[in-house]
Amino acid sequence: MSIFVNAETTVVIQGISPTSQGLYHGLRNRAYGTKVVAGTNPKRGGETIEGIPVFASVAEAVKATGATASFISVPPPAAPAAILEAAEAGVPFIVCITEGIPAHDEARVYNRLRREFPGTRLLGPNCPGIISAGQCNIGITSGDIALPGGPVGLVSRSGTVFYQAMYELTQKGIGQTTGVGIGGDPVPGTSFIDVLQAFEADPETKAILMIGEIGGSAEEEAAAFIKEHVSKPVVAYIAGVTAPPGRKMGHAGAIVSGSKGTAKAKMEALAAAGVLVAQNPTEAGEKMAEVVRHLG
Amino acid sequence: MDLFEYQGKQYFARFGIPTSPGAVADSVEEAVAKAEELGYPVVVKAQVKVGGRGKAGGVKLAANAEEARQHAQAILGMDIKGHVVHRLWIERASDIAKEYYASFTLDRSAKLHLCMVSAKGGVDIEEVAATDPGAIARRHVDPVDGFPLEAAREVVAAAGLDEAAREPAAALLVQLWDCYDQGDCDLAEINPLILTTDGRVHALDAKVSLDDNAAFRHPEWAEFAGTETEDPREKLAKEKGLQYVGLDGEVGIIANGAGLAMSTCDVVEQVGGKPANFLDIGGGANAAQMANALEVINADPKVRAIFINIFGGITRGEEVANGIVEALGRVEIASPIVVRLDGTNAEEGRRILAQVPPDRLESRPTMIEAARRAAELARQRA
Ligand SMILES: Nc1ncnc2c1ncn2[C@@H]1O[C@H](COP(=O)(O)OP(=O)(O)O)[C@@H](O)[C@H]1O
Ligand SMILES: [Mg+2]
Questions:
Q1: For residue A203, how many other CB atoms are within 10 A of its CB?
Q2: Which end of chain B is more exposed for a tag (fewer CB within 10 A), N or C?
Q3: Lowest-confidence range among A183-192, A240-249, B72-81, B261-270?
Q4: Is A47 within 8 Å of chain B by CB?
């Protein structure tokens, strides 16, 4: 099994054209086995691109194909409207990898979804996407680093450390159920807690690897949630242990202020919640190998 | 992008937020001339992008030209928490009856904006926050609803602002919301927000941080660019469009993705090395970016070894390797390079890198081994 997406998931690529990012990634996702059933482009309704039928709107695409997920990689100025268009069309799962959306737009979109479209889950923006190993890959993760069969669920705020961590697991022969990249932006549609909750409920996921980074308090909140609600073993790594305080390290999310948000504070909170905390991605893989060995 | 106080006040003015008349000055002579124009008393204020200038001696009242000269002399060149003062803001002194605090920022946990107002503003607000958190009225703002005057009235009342200040403060708070919201601020803070002895409310300080992601819809922000006083390495990196933070070690670091770059710094430290920088070349990692990144690292005289840590996702290993080889042809690199290349088509990439003479570039199969080797090279060449 898996969380959020599986072999039945059907995907509509929003903003498709022969030269779009969406098509490029969509074709890679399709090559992985993802069911890419439609594309949208207001100017290209009725066309077929690389065998993908194009509709003028998400609503039309959903009506014709019953798509259950959408994939958005359009530029920042267009992304908020694209997300809302998908929600309005009733798409239950939206993956938005767009990097550079203004924080105020993210907050507006998030709160509109929360209030008007409670049945819609947004993953991202500014995330690598989601991969249910062997079943469905939506986003930019290269599918060959995932190993199907579980038992580990992976969730990460950082993009490249997400790949690194998945690769560490795969190299050790440890499979994954689903890998979820939630993204490092200030207002992510899906948080650690949402993913932890889903992994806890998924019978195939037996252990969880969580990759956090400095800034904000999402890891501290996740720690509190794990303590109360997660019975499965959790291994965690926080990127930015050696980052100097008060400096932005490239991510909108990675801002340290005072002691709150530092890697140390996050690692302590996680350790106190019973999480096995690693010092680097490799050690995280090793610790997870240990956990998996004892799963029985 | 953080703004200087005077820029923040210019930004406030666009939204009608009242501030004091003033002018910038970059020299003692200019400061005195501006003070003369404004009329005494004036306040001479250090322009650095850090709070607590008052306590550090960077904000001084001047009653005449002689005092203005003395203060300007003392403050220009002053180091405030690592920020050197190159510019002054001279503004008319206000007769302060009360100092309040007001701000808008994003509450990431609640995923809502947060308005904070306190009757106990001024230079000790951080202490108030720590010792008397109840003295700060907080109200979440849902961006879908906005922040109407009614909400502003409730917050200023909850904060216990003086009666006389409440109506003008509420009106100003709505303007501050507009500045924060329409102006795409990460932070819009006024401390102190003052009540003058003649009953007016206005902003005596401005801490404004703009969301760089929103620059595409704010052509007017161009006037704020280029006034950063920063590390020359960071300046060069910015010109090249790279995410760079200067640190003070000897191992130059290049990685793709902010998280992996941070992680690389972590691992280098753990194996006994000291990162010279954080550098994220982004997802693409093509030859041009790699050449730029190597150029930036090369410009840092402290660097003794370079660690390139790339995890190929969309970017395939052979593209990354070709990029490195091409970059080496373009830039004369002073330090030996250790590369760890993994992910898509990594093997082919490593094969390409094997053509580079080993005294210039070595490959290592894992992040830890590569970090160890880079730290070792840096030590040997110290
Ligand atoms: N124009 C002014 N007139 C009178 N007092 C001022 C003026 N500007 C600043 N001050 C005083 O100096 C203090 C510190 O100035 P401020 O601009 O808030 O700098 P910082 O917050 O960096 O210390 C204020 O709290 C206020 O008491
Ligand atoms: Mg102040």
A1: 8
A2: C
A3: A240-249
A4: no
